[in-house]
TrEMBL record:
Pfam families linked: F-box-like
UniProt organism field: Papilio xuthus
Classification lineage: Eukaryota, Metazoa, Ecdysozoa, Arthropoda, Hexapoda
SMART domains the record matches: FBOX
Domain F-box: 4-54
Protein name: F-box domain-containing protein
Amino acid sequence: MSDENYLCSLPTEIILYIFTYLPVKDLIKCRQVSIRLKQIADSLIRSEGLWREHCRKDFSNVYKIARYKSRPGMLWYNIYRSLSLWSKLAIAREEYDEFASASDLNNEISNVIILKDGIIGVHTQSAIVYYELETLEKAKRGAITGTYLRYLENDDTIVILNYNLQLFIIRKVIQNPRFETNITFDNVKSFLLVDEVIYFVTLADDIYVCQLENLSNVRLGHSDDGIMSLSFCRNKLHILTFQRSILSYNEGNITHKCTITSETNLLNQLAEYNFLETLDWRIYNHWMYVLNLKLPNGPLRDIIKVHVYGDVVFVGSNWGVLRIYYSPYFDGLFDIYDSEPVRQFNFMDRSDCPVLTYCPIIQIDVCECEDGHTVIVAMPKKIAVLNFTHSFKRTASVAMLPYNDIPKTKTLRIQELNCN
């Protein structure tokens, strides 16, 4: 008896048990053996625990944020399928839209964040306004008025840095009534929100961590080299200084990892420690000049924003050019300079006046949807929306399931927070 026939002869319960341990590629092969095995394999699609584990194994560095920002109702199976399709972005169909057009200085955009349940937080010069991802219309959730330097938000917390360098941490969900609902720190120049903690740096280059559960804070250490930015990867906090040193915080100590010199691959070194998103690219260009390294011509010479999303890298320029790369590695090293983008877009407003065509891409965010992706690209005057969809021939061998019914969820309604 062949292996295929032997497998088909087994009871359904045993086949199901075997299938739960197979890698996705092997599971797909089993679906092609017989109608019975296909039906058994397809029955696992609604097994949220199984597909969450597949996502964790195959997309470990992005699966959590992909689920959080995905369209409402997405199953883990749909998340896995959508993440797998990024490698085929070059042949995906695209649709373009835009919203939040700024008609005056007060409405100019500073940041945009895709939140849970299809909500988009848009940070303008005068407020933080919320939109529905599905309709691109303003959401019912009230705006947070005020002028702020930086804004971040997750399920439980809103983090705001104002122009007086005061950091406001506001808890939206209080698990214990004995805990504080908000806290303020003075003289903060930068911060990093990671799950349930916030790391922040003061003007004196002291590093602190604040636990969001109870808003307790601890000083982690100090750097004499001048801290430029923070990053977090491989479960460690990393620090980049103006002297081109990379430090790491581990078990109560700040240790020196490396110093960037002309002998090192600058771009790969920064990518390894996850600094591409928090880096000031003007400083990067200065370092290239100091180290006597050659800058590329074209849009990559004017990089202002990089967003890394698993194997996908989005690169935005000062002039509204967005390049999307998939796994941009050359000779095993991260290198967007010698790699070709799979897609490229130009959002520059056409005008005879060069001043009006200055269109820096200041933020990029991603949302997964069924058999596709939505990419949000923020510029001071508008937010562009790119919807990518992958088309497949619908046959009996393609398992597609509708979304589950989505229960309505309550969100905190904030009319106004005075954080000036």
